[in-house]
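Today's session is about reading a structure prediction critically. Students often jump straight to the picture, but the first step is always the sequence itself: look for stretches that repeat, for charged clusters, for runs of hydrophobic residues. Only then move on to the predicted structure, which in these notes is written as discrete structure tokens rather than atom positions. Here is the chain we will use throughout the hour.
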Amino acid sequence: MLLPLAWCLAAVLAWTNRALAICPTSCKCDDDTLVVTCVQANLDVIPITLNPSIQRLVLRGNRVRTVDSAFQFYSELQYVDLSDNQLVSVPARSFDAQRKLTELHLHHNKISFVSNRTFSGLRALTVLSLRRNFLEEFPDQLFASLSRLEELDLGQNRISRVDARAFAGLASLKILYLDDNQLKVVPTPAFALLGGLAELHLGLNGFARLPDDAFAGLAKLAVLDLSGAGLVNVSEHAFRGLPALRYLGLADNRLSAVPTRQLQGLARLEELYLGQNDLEALPAGAFRGLANLRKLDVSGAPLLTTVERGALQDNLNLETLVLSSNKRLAAVEEGALEGLPNLRHLVLRDNAFASFPETLAAWPELRRIDLAENPLECRCGLLWLRDLLARRNATQVLCAAPQHLKDRSLPALTDDELGCALHDTRQQAIIGALCGCAVAVLAALGFLAHRHRRRFQAAVKDYKWNNRAISRKEHEYQKTFSDEEYISRAAQPQPLKPVPVTEL
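Below is the predicted structure for this chain, in token form.
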């Protein structure tokens, strides 16, 4: 009798609460979609007069200081956002009634402590964010009750130590953020319990060194971000045991050279970020073994001056190359970008290039070209680039020199403004070729004349002697008969000579 009575009482209370549901003035309550949004509504506490059937509750940007028993009224919740409040603590079992809750966002608060009972009851939770709080360390099995959790964000806290069994029970975890904390060493033992992890973000810590097998046990890891981790040294086998890795972020560290040997084992790597390091050059074979590399980004390297020929010789599948904001990079060696049949995106923005050779890349095959913010000298040698940019929707390229063209757009310049005598580079090439042929022919004739000079001199001498002899004879002949005599003789009839008769 008591159980049916309790059910009836609960039904009556639910109907009564729904009928008496009150939406705070600064909130938006939708009983059709079962969504309540109270963003920057100046709330001090979690309201208890909402529709008990709500499924999404957004209380972002208020002044809520604690999670009290108010959540007990909302057992249908699937999404809760309490970010940007003033939460100092989350009492144990605060979410005991939220058996359907899948996402809980507590980022940007003042939480300094959580226990293994804080998240009790959240059996369906898949996303938990504790980012930007004051957490310092985690005890054993802190998240043991969250067996379905797939994404855990602990970034931007004060964590200096992670217990070896802190992640016990997180068999379904796929994404883990531990970036922007105070870790001095990689918590390798704790990772051993996360065999299904796909993404790991560890940047903005203070590792200084990556030891061998730093990520042992993470055989399914596809994304590893170590940007800003303070790395100076990477051991030869630091990335051993990562056969599925496709993305590696090593930007904003203190590496003085490309870790070629350390990267060789990452056969499936597709994206590599190496900018903001102390690299002086990208030497030949720098990315040896990375046959599947599709994107390489080396931006903001203050000491980078050289990209050597053969630096990308093993990276035939490279599609995107970003070399931007390298203030000392004024050129790349001839042929450095040759042999890249799949290159489609080339970003050379904000470097020290004064010019770009036409042979640098297969320009017509590129889909994206970004050459902006370089100190270009706009002269006739860039006529080809002007024509290329004029035909494409590329980023704006401005001139830095000569002075009368400063800040002018290169595609808008005329041939004369670029100082070109001819309007067509093909004409220049043809005329140059003809001139070269003429010089070659003259040189050949000169060589033959020098080689057979004696025969040539003898032939000339004979020619002159014969001419003199003929002239002498003609002169004598003309002396014998004058023109008048010759004419008179021809006009007079000649006497017939008698025919001799033989007498019988």
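Discussion point for the tutorial: DSSP finds seven helices and 24 strands in the chain.
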